């Protein structure tokens, strides 16, 4: 899995006006990695057709929670599959498999997929997911529209290691390029690439763990972030 390295060197905003301030809370999501399991549960498309990839029930459910799965085949080649919708009935009883009745878990058994175009999966508007840059927002009720830029002061200065192994320091900017069924109102989901654990201390994964963010009107930054989300 490879991709062009995004820039993390934008300058701090000159002004952070109160009328652009948001109070958000965050979770994180990542690319779930699994090995193909012949005879296991097939990944199906929205029409119920097999995509030719099979997983054991546990990996099927855990991958459905994240919405993006990288599957390694017996030949060593990997393919990435993205959430494409949900069936009306569960293919797998993920609540029983993972011993949880959380909606994200039980809903994972109904997930349908499509093969991703981007190396880490696809978001909305034909955009690719970018580790530590992409955020998922509520398409209906979020204060953050798709393709918006937000700045999170608490993220600026955070040391990161990109999937390429490159060490960078985050500049605080994020791009709204994805959505999710469990993302509502002022909840955002920060994409952390192939890393399960988030490096960001402000991500508390609870509605009580709020932080400040700001909508940014910076055409040059927006254009660059959009380009980064279109470059595989």
Tags for this entry?
232 residues; globular; single chain; 14 strands
Between the first and last Cα atoms, what is the distance in angstroms? 10 Å
What is the CATH first-level class name of the largest domain? Answer: Mainly Beta
The count of domains is 2
Say what oligomer this is. single chain
**Strand tally, please?**
14
Question: Can you describe this structure?
Answer:
This protein is an alpha+beta fold. It folds into two domains: 18-29 and 123-228, Barwin-like endoglucanases, CATH 2.40.40; 32-115, no CATH class. The protein is 13% helix and 32% strand. The protein has four helices and 14 strands. The chain has helices at residues 57-66, 94-98, 103-108, 219-228; strands spanning 21-29, 32-35, 41-44, 50-55, 68-72, 78-86, 111-115, 134-137, 149-151, 159-161, 167-169, 173-179, 187-191, 210-216. A six-stranded mixed β-barrel has the order 1-13-8-12-9-14. Strands 2-5-6-7 form a four-stranded mixed sheet, with helices on one face. The chain has a two-stranded antiparallel ribbon with strand order 3-4. A hairpin with a 5-residue loop joins strand 3 and strand 4 (50-55). The N and C termini lie close together (10 Å). The mean pLDDT is 93.
Describe the structure in brief.
By secondary structure, the chain is α+β, with helices and mostly antiparallel strands. The protein has helices spanning about 55-65, 95-100, 105-110, 220-230; strands at about 20-30, 30-35, 40-45, 50-55, 70, 80-85, 110-115, 135, 150, 160, 165-170, 175-180, 185-190, 210-215.
């Amino acid at each position: 899995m490879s991709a062009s390295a995004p820039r993390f060197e934008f300058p701090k905003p000159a002004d952070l006006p109160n009328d652009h301030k948001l109070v958000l809370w965050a979770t994180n999501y990542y690319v779930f990695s699994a090995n193909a399991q012949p005879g296991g549960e097939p990944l199906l498309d929205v029409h119920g057709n097999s995509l030719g990839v099979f997983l054991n029930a546990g990996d099927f459910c855990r991958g459905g929670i994240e919405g993006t799965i990288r599957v390694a085949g017996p030949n060593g080649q990997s393919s990435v599959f993205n959430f494409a919708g949900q069936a009306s009935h569960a293919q797998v009883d993920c609540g029983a498999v993972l011993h949880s009745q959380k909606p994200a878990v039980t809903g994972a058994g109904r997930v349908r997929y499509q093969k991703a175009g981007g190396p880490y999966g696809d978001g909305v508007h034909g955009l690719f997911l970018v580790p530590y840059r992409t955020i998922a927002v509520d398409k209906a009720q979020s204060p953050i529209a798709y393709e918006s830029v937000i700045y999170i002061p608490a993220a600026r200065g955070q040391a990161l290691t990109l999937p390429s192994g490159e060490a960078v320091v985050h500049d605080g900017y994020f791009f709204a390029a994805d959505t999710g069924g469990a993302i509502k109102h002022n909840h955002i989901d920060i994409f952390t690439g192939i890393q399960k654990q988030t490096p960001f201390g402000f991500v508390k994964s609870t509605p009580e763990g709020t932080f400040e963010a700001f909508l940014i009107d910076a055409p040059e930054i927006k254009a660059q972030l959009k380009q980064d989300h279109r470059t595989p």
